[in-house]
Design goal:
With 106 residues, the chain is α+β, with helices and mostly antiparallel strands. It is built from three helices and four strands; from the N terminus they run αββαββα. The chain has helices spanning 4-21, 50-59, 85-100; strands at 26-30, 33-37, 66-71, 74-80. It has a four-stranded antiparallel β-sheet with strand order 1-2-4-3, covered by helices on one side. A hairpin with a 2-residue loop joins strand 3 and strand 4. The longest helix is centred in the N-terminal third of the chain and has 18 residues, at 4-21. It is globular, with a radius of gyration of 14 Å.
Length: 106
């Protein structure tokens, strides 16, 4: 078993891998929130991709937990109720699964 500090570092890497797989440039968990930054280039083809469309379809009916924001032309997603890095990883796994099989309710 790893010490808690080492486990936290491993969780940071896990969170980052999951975020990158969803096209997210940066992810941060702090104060019960997870912040996910989308590509900086607003003209990026990412914004026309199935992944981004799937993220929007997943978060739209869940406005109590997910909020899209823009600051200095950077789009980011605020996810509430994320108390740990592991919870952030779980949420990104749920989001990935929802995108992979959008016909099934998540």
């Amino acid at each position: 078993k790893l010490p808690p500090q080492a486990e936290a570092l491993v969780d940071v890497v896990r969170l980052r891998w999951r975020a990158v797989a969803l096209g997210i440039e940066r992810a941060k968990v702090k104060n019960g929130l997870m912040l996910l930054w989308f590509p900086s280039d607003g003209k990026s083809l990412y914004y026309k991709s199935a992944i981004f469309g799937g993220i929007l379809r997943y978060i739209t009916p869940r406005a109590d937990r997910f909020v899209l924001k823009q600051n200095n032309n950077k789009l980011y997603l605020v996810v509430r109720e994320i108390e740990s890095l592991a919870a952030g990883c779980d949420m990104l796994d749920t989001l990935s699964a929802a995108i992979s099989s959008p016909q099934e309710p998540q």
